[in-house]
DNA sequence: AAGTGGTCTAGACCACCTA
DNA sequence: AGGTGGTCTAGACCACTTT
């Protein structure tokens, strides 16, 4: 299975950060030469990556990496925020710490009020802040040590996976509205600027809480993409 | 697109009963000869049918029909626009007519440039316009008469179903942005007002176009809700 | 004009299944 | 053994994007 080897190799390169989010992959012919296969085989491998929402291929240009190390790729029907073609972004961790949040615990129906909070800001190449994401995951097991140890591969999804929290179901709400005063400061925008807003709650197969992510997204840089009825493999 | 023509032809043969449930399709090489294409193209078409659960391919044997005549289920995982807090709305048809749209045909990869256009405006109880929806469906078969006859049950999806166009897969993009001048007039808002925007393209099992809907939604009245992972994958 | 992805072709070899 | 699907190849032509 050369196709799988190539897909696996490219997936690794993307999730490990060798190909950054927004970057352009080498041309298909170049990949074919590099892997010593035909272009058709490269294309079949790239189809797999596209299905997993790791890349976004555009005619006449190439394949852009659309993986920010944040979202789970497993539930393929997640609405994913896609950077418009070829915008390079960098991610900055605003905070990573253990918190207590009784409101969130009540909302999720949890008795445990301890969580790990991870807040991140994304900037485009020009340094303009384009998104603000707040993740909350349970402070159980190995995750409890994340603030001290850092994230696995710098990726929240990898850290969750390493902790055995594999999301299998969830809900997402997408809306739009004006930025609040505090968020506006973080994003360096005028208060009241309209942003896309997404709230996502994921649970594992046994129904326990896996992750809650709320995001503010600059509508000029992001749109949310959904795919239905075509997931297989 | 030979692939799509072949998929469409085979889908028709299956749903019309020419290939009964459980029957074995002709061999790929035989189909290739019959359609006068290469085997690779036949295989890509069969992949589409398999993805739509119309056939089941087994190594060394062939492709069995797995379609029992039941209608395809609607893709239940569409992102649905939900009115906040039980706001009652009324829907007004702005237009329902046959149109020619070469750009849309090109975008969808269709040679037929005829479509049925249905534009609708929704107002809340106070009479404020809260959403604008433009639907485009193919002007094939019974649908071609919709402008004269009206919609089945006043519902576009019911009309589509009655015409044999059952969506089984698709994509949706959600973004946000300022209203254009023309849309602002229709919605009775100031140009540049920020609205949620959704574009949805649905296709039938054989990959042919079923419906395209673009919507502008007042972010104060609507949010989009997604639910997934509960029963499949 | 040059580079890129999108599609199709004709052929090849393999693993699998039924005889 | 002979037919079937699974995979890969090397090349071709086209439409699109950028220079």
Descriptors for this entry?
globular, Chorismate lyase, two-stranded antiparallel ribbon, homodimer, Arc Repressor Mutant, subunit A, alpha+beta, DNA-binding
At CATH level 3, the topology of the largest domain in chain A is Chorismate lyase
- Give helix and strand order of chain A, one letter per element, not per position: HHHEEEEHEEHHEHEEE
Q: Which structural class matches the secondary elements of chain A?
A: alpha+beta
How many individual β-strands of chain A?
Answer: 10
- The 3D shape of chain A can be described as globular
| Strand numbers in spatial order across the main sheet of chain A | 4-5-6-9-8-7
- Poorly predicted residue ranges of chain A: 71-78
Taken together, the total number of domains of chain A comes to 2
- Tally of individual helices of chain A: 7
- Radius of gyration of chain A, in angstroms, nearest whole number: 18 Å
Oligomeric nature of the chains: homodimer
Mean pLDDT of chain A: 80
CATH class category label of the largest domain in chain A: Alpha Beta
Question: CATH homologous superfamily of the largest domain in chain A, by name?
Answer: Chorismate lyase-like
The appropriate CATH architecture of the largest domain in chain A is 3-Layer(aba) Sandwich
Largest sheet of chain A: 6 strands, antiparallel
Strand content of chain A: 35-45%
């Amino acid at each position: 299975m050369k196709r799988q080897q190539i897909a696996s190799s490219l997936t690794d390169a993307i999730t490990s950060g060798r190909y950054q989010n927004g970057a352009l992959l080498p041309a298909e012919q170049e990949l074919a030469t590099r892997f010593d296969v035909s272009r058709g085989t490269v294309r079949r491998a790239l189809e797999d990556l596209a299905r997993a929402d790791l890349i976004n291929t555009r005619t006449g240009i190439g394949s852009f990496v659309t993986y920010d190390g944040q979202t789970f790729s497993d539930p393929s029907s997640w609405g994913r925020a896609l950077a418009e073609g070829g915008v390079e972004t960098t991610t900055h961790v605003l905070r990573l710490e253990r918190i207590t949040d009784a409101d969130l615990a009540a909302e999720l129906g949890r008795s445990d009020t301890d969580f790990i909070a991870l807040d991140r800001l994304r900037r485009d190449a020009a340094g303009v802040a384009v998104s603000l994401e707040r993740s909350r995951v349970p402070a159980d097991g190995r995750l409890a040590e994340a603030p001290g140890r850092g994230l696995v591969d710098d990726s929240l999804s990898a850290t969750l996976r390493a902790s055995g929290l594999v999301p299998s179901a969830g809900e997402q709400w997408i809306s739009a509205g004006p930025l609040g005063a505090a968020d506006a400061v973080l994003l360096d925008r005028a208060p009241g600027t309209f942003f896309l807003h997404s709230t996502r709650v994921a649970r594992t197969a046994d129904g326990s809480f896996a992750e809650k992510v709320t995001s503010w997204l600059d509508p000029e840089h992001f749109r949310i993409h959904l795919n239905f009825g075509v997931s297989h493999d």
